[in-house]
Design a protein that fits this description.
Strand content: 35-45%
CATH architecture of the largest domain: 2-Layer Sandwich
Number of helices: 6
Distance between the termini: 63 Å
CATH topology of the largest domain: Tetrahydropterin Synthase, Chain A
Order of helices and strands: EEEHHEEHEEHHHE
Number of strands: 8
């Protein structure tokens, strides 16, 4: 009896079935193209997170921009365009370590800022003094930072706050306040995390 021929399974090339989508930054970054991603359908892109350096997004390769990473989440996908929202940033820990040398005091502050448009952002801030300071001076620095963090929520929308934080304007404002207390080396918002709400 002749053997039944074995039917070969048809191999489907999944890569060929994928489409390319252009990922766009939020309007605060001029809705510029920041990536291209391949997916079989739109739904596979939604809620994906991309991490890019600030230098890549702005095209300005300054030292601070190179060591600052931005996190974007893909929301709407229309046609071949995927639109993102900024959900946070982080300064490289290796860069932060270069600032934290001996004979300096370091004050860490973590605070949830409630913005004018009812959004919440966890801000992690680092203040480094020019030399070691007393516990009393540290407390004064901490309270001054907290005052500024509480004020900023009433002044800015989420987009405005993130712009101030990412481009160092907010840190500079706090630095100018703190140098009235003692000699300061650096103030950095080392990390921010937007508290997201999902339906």
């Amino acid at each position: 009896m002749a053997a039944t021929p074995i039917k070969k399974a048809k191999v489907v090339d999944k890569w060929k079935s994928k489409q390319w989508f252009t990922v766009l930054a939020p309007s605060a970054f001029d809705t510029k193209e920041i990536a291209e991603l391949a997916a079989t359908e739109e739904e596979n892109l939604k809620n994906r997170i991309l991490s890019l350096s600030l230098a890549d997004v702005t095209g300005q390769p300054s030292q601070s921009a190179i060591f600052t990473s931005l996190k974007f989440r893909i929301g709407d996908v229309k046609g071949k365009s995927a639109y993102t929202k900024l959900i946070g940033h982080e300064i490289s820990p290796s860069y932060i370590r270069t600032l934290s040398r001996r004979n300096r005091s370091i004050i860490n502050v973590v605070y949830d800022v409630k913005t004018k448009d009812d959004q919440s952002v966890r801000v992690k801030l680092l203040a480094i003094t020019g030399s070691e300071v007393s516990q009393n001076t540290k407390k004064n620095i901490y309270h001054a930072i907290m005052e500024e963090l509480k004020k900023v929520g009433a002044e800015y929308t989420l987009d405005q706050l993130m712009q101030e934080v990412i481009f160092g304007k907010f840190a500079s404002k706090i630095f100018n306040r703190l140098k009235q207390i003692t000699m300061m080396r650096r103030v950095e918002v080392r990390k921010s995390e937007v508290k997201e709400q999902f339906a």
